[in-house]
Target: Ion transport domain-containing protein
Amino acid sequence: MFIDIRTSLFAIYLFLAGDSSALSNWSYADNPSIAILIVLFSLLVVVYLMNLLIGLLNNAIEEDNNRVSYLIQKAEILAEIELFYLLPHQRRWQEWFPEVIHYYADADKTRIEIERLIKEGEWDNREFIKMQEKLLEELQIKHNPNDNKVILEKLLALEKLEKIDEKLEKLDKLEKLEKSYCENLDKLKKLDEIEKLLKEMQAK
Model:
């Protein structure tokens, strides 16, 4: 397999898969250098490169985490500056604090997010109604707020909870009545015992 460059590359691929049949024509006892090269190949290519790949992935994840923490810290610092270090007339500057902030968003991602919010029942929050209607119109999403299955399911669940609360209240009342009945019975028994004692005293 090492006569041609193509078959030699395929032999190296077989080494990566753990197949050393390409070297079956040579005996390891007569050719110890082949055994040494196989060991070095397994150490360098398989072990070293795999660990290197894992290390690069860890570095990439740490960079993402550092980016997130950097943005959070930046937002906290900006909020502190706006609250404590700006003068009143600076807070009224339209260039720094505009009433409306425009930003770009991918249409496909926005459509997916809106459909998710509609499905989970979090879209109809009665805030920014005009903006919501405009977004639905621009993205060509059909949505009837009065025909939302999630909201209906939540309403049904609330009704069930209200019924359960009513039943629990009735049970509590029954328990209280039962306790009062038991207490009255105990009092009656005590009164009967007292009357018996009085009759016995009178008889004596």
Q: What stands out?
A: The mean pLDDT is 80.
